[in-house]
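INFO worker-7 received task bundle
INFO bundle size: 2
INFO processing item 0
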Amino acid sequence: MSRLRLLALVGVMIFGCATIALSETFEIPESVIMSPKQFEGYTPKKGDVTFNHMSHIDIPCQQCHHTVADTYTIESCMTAGCHDDIKVRTEISSVYRTFHTTHDKEKSCVGCHRELKRQGPSDAPLNCNSCHVQ
């Protein structure tokens, strides 16, 4: 019985330390501008997207920032080595696929917005120009 209590105590301590460490260094920006203009030699057809974190506050960070569990850091979706393929739209590393696929209801903006609309009334935008403002 004492081994079980010791394991439980160690688990609580590890969880508590990780929570404190993350809470002290973690700041959510109100919004971020996502722009494919960062990719050399690419001229986007649509405008940048201003992503408002506050309107998505009820969604767990790791749902979109899927590397959090492995790295304990939150990076931009278009960080080098993540979703940085601007040319091929079908690859998992594709910038386009990350935001526009309808096959992923959790990690894709369009997929999630369509699922919300399917479930009932929602202000989740589906029109391209609602997100891509020129």
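INFO item 0 finished
INFO processing item 1
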Amino acid sequence: MPVTPAPENKEATSKEAVSLASFSGRGLTSKQPIQVDIKTAPKNSGITFHVLSSKTNQYVEIKACADNVVNTLRNVVLGKDGTRLCIVEHFLAATTLWGVEDLSVYVAGLEMPLGDGSAALWTDLFEKAGMQPSPPQSTIELKEPIILTRGDRTLMALPDTKFSVQYMMDWNHPKIGKRWQSWDVGQNPAEITRARTFGTLKDHQMLGLENDVISLTADDFTMPLHWEDEPVRHKMLDLVGDLALCGINPLRIKAKFVSIKGGHEIDVEMAKRLAAALPKHN
């Protein structure tokens, strides 16, 4: 069955979508071709994925929101009517930190491209397409703390004067151990956007990723790190991307997000709580 292309743009007007950037490649986990076309969307509409259904060969509209999350085991998966899109968190982190808030993203494939396991694929693409970074100011007040605990994992949203994230890792590995790192809107986004994902060599061999991303052996990493604490920086990147599922750019929120051993599941729960507690737009 031939693939239905993403809708073509006519001469752009204020009411019509404008193509911003596109990417063609191969999914690292699905091993299948992927085509991503990024277009403008109406103001205050947020980010919406249009995912090509393998059943109908038509695009299924899936809003980037916590209510549409169907799996958080290894990555964040959005789904609707049987159509799913994997690995959305790095793209959402990139759009958050770049300040791109209203997009229609057409995807022919099962996953968002992983690149080297960081968000650099997307920020580099934005830059090459001439999209200038314009992160928003923190203007939305968080009225009271939100504290979530799941077993030994905790994620807190604490009222503050600006957006920031802090993460504490505690891994039984000689090159990780206990790590604590923070990032706020006054720092260079590249300090987290270029932090790559990681996992055990056994898991990556099972997924066929051992030559593409960082893996943990018994006592080391399979690739040189950009920073000694790159794994904890990547955890902050994931947190930023997951928080974007609250429906607004989380950089707008005057809050300090403190995660202790957190992951996608508790992050998405926080996004749901934020969506209920905050106004949709400032």
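INFO item 1 finished
INFO post-check item 1: DSSP finds six helices and 16 strands in the chain.
INFO post-check item 1: The first strand starts at residue 19 and ends at 26.
INFO worker-7 idle
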